[in-house]
Amino acid sequence: MMSTTHNLAGVIGKGMISTLGNTVAETRGALYQPVPRLPELPRRVATTLSLPVFEVADLAPDTGIPGGFSLQLLRHALREALDDAKLAGGDLAGKRVGVCMGTTVACQLNDIPFYATLRSGALPPARPLNNYIAGNPAEWIRRELGLNGPALTISNACSSGADAIGIGLLWIRQGLCDLVIAGGTDELNRVPLVGFNALGVCAPGPCRPFDADRAGLNLGEAAGVVILAPADAAAGDRAVCAVAGYGNSADAFHITQPDPEGHGLERAIRLSLDSAGMIQPGDIDFINAHGTGTPANDRVEAIVFHRLFGAAARFLSTKALTGHTLGAAGAIECILTLLMLEESTVPASMRFERLAADMPCGPLRSPCRLPAAQWALSTSLAFGGANSALVLRRR
Amino acid sequence: MPDLYLQNCRVFSRFTTPLSEDDLKAVRIACSLRRADRFTTLAAAAVKAPAGQAFPATLPPSTGLITVSAFGPHKTVFATLDDILDYPEDMILPVRFSHSVHNAAAAYLGTILAITGPTFAVTGFEAPLFAALELAQTLLHAAACPLVLLIGIEERGSLTQAAPALAPERFPTEPEEIVCAMLLSTEATAGSRRVIHERHPSTSTSTGTGTSTSQPAAAACTLGLSEAAIRQLAESDNTADLRL
């Protein structure tokens, strides 16, 4: 293992927008509300499906930005993260700044009117194509901020955001960058909405992660951005929390179903613990699970948590608060986990009431005060059997 | 960062070894790709097509896997849109949707090759192959895997065909269909080639986060590769440094 393995990436700035709030401060307050907001039928997305979703309502669509609403969400979170890090545009000049972003929607040309024209044999307007190309999230940030560091857009489906932050950690450790802007973004879009419905994984009501009566997920939309700096540099040294470890492992099992025994997830978690300095499962104070509310995902996570962390594993899912935000999920869940570490309190896993017979353990039923909490884990699972785990540390 | 070495490489393109639909059919059968789309089949062909140069039949399970594409499986995305346009929303085919995501090809490749190492689908328009090479170097430097299998795929379809008419400054010609497999490590071995890749700098001088719709600077050719680079990549007996 490399000598740089244990180095931390201090989180010097955070920005987040979701249905929990338009800022990190709003999110922090909403995270601990005893009665969460309910998902509602889509308003911005035109659909005939009666599926409850978590839609960001307080951000008017701006047609002046490429990449659609996904990029607008990203810009919002990016500005907050840069402000939080006290970085103005000029502060980035001369620094090696990398950008690593996760997305699913922003890297597909899902414009239905554009395609309808194209398939009719006529030439559609060029704007959707140009916006799609200009809206690649990492490349857009690099151009927008005039950066010359690496720019990488990862589309690992639902683990994209976590993977982006994990790669950001590696860039910091390897001295490739002085700063890394990492995160993920995804808008609620008609295509994944009907797609997930076709897969039979959408809940008809509010999702109930890990509950015996869980019936699927609610889609959501969000963006989350963190600014990372080496923990041995001045800015990073002042950071309260840090990204400490990252692991990624594939199931090599099935295109949409997770390995029922969770071997890939277990490998990813073990790799993340090793990457954080060979810490042991017992060092982890709590886990922010992927916890989509689908029968297969939640069962696998519970099995792996029980196997690795024991029956007393403390874990929760925040997706009953935000919905499943796809390429943003790993990023916003990283930020939510950082907030939990900062507040030394883990909220209850919303809408979990009853443990299923096939689950060896369940999530937190009530908020848990952990004054000495130092280590947390955030897990992400994705289409295609992708598994990622981030270890986060309060310093 | 340690140097990056190309251990094996196969390139299928109009400029090198072309892939026929018969080749792809053979790959579908050999790899049991009953449901997979053409994009995924192209990705599998990168390592499994009978044509082309020799490639290791097996790889260590901990091998890292990166797929990279600008347009991704856009034909399958459009097939999903066909469903939405032609049928009620609750009647679209789940298989089409699940194959329309960028990382579906990586998932299939991992299963075909029994690779469980770190796996990524990378996408971009400025210089996606260079970004993927940088990611490979990062993973290898972090000892996250002993080898990285990098698969570049660009598939022809109605979108790539329309691109020159829609955006002629960016696409003077249609992006070429290409598939390449690059097996990478940070150790030089007999016959390996050092890969020298340079990041394309951003040309924007913007310092704010406004609402710029400025276009990417670099011409989006096929994975950001010129014809000369594609030909150079395919030179199996050349052990000189590979400058991309």
Give an account of the 3D structure.
The complex is a heterodimer of chains A (395) and B (244). Chain A is α/β, with parallel strands linked by helices and 395 residues long. Chain A contains twelve helices and twelve strands. In chain A, strands 3-2-4-5-1-6-12-11-7-8 form a ten-stranded mixed beta sheet, with helices on both faces. A two-stranded antiparallel ribbon of chain A has the order 9-10. The longest helix of chain A is centred in the first third of the chain and has 17 residues, at 68-84. The radius of gyration of chain A is 20 Å and the shape is globular. The model of chain A is unreliable at 1-5 (pLDDT under 50). Helix content of chain B is 33%, strand content 17%. In chain B, helix 8 links the parallel strand 6 and strand 7. In chain B, strands 3-2-4-5-1-6-7 form a seven-stranded mixed beta sheet, with helices on both faces. Chain B is of the alpha/beta class and 244 residues long. The longest helix of chain B has 14 residues, at 128-141. Chain B has one domain (4-51, 62-198, 218-243): Peroxisomal Thiolase, Chain A, domain 1 (3-Layer(aba) Sandwich), CATH 3.40.47. Chain B has helices at 21-30, 38-48, 74-86, 94-99, 104-113, 128-141, 158-166, 227-233; strands at 4-13, 64-69, 119-123, 148-154, 178-185, 193-196, 242-243. Chains A and B meet through helix 2, helix 3, helix 4, helix 5 and strand 3 of A and helix 3, helix 4, helix 5, strand 3 and helix 6 of B.
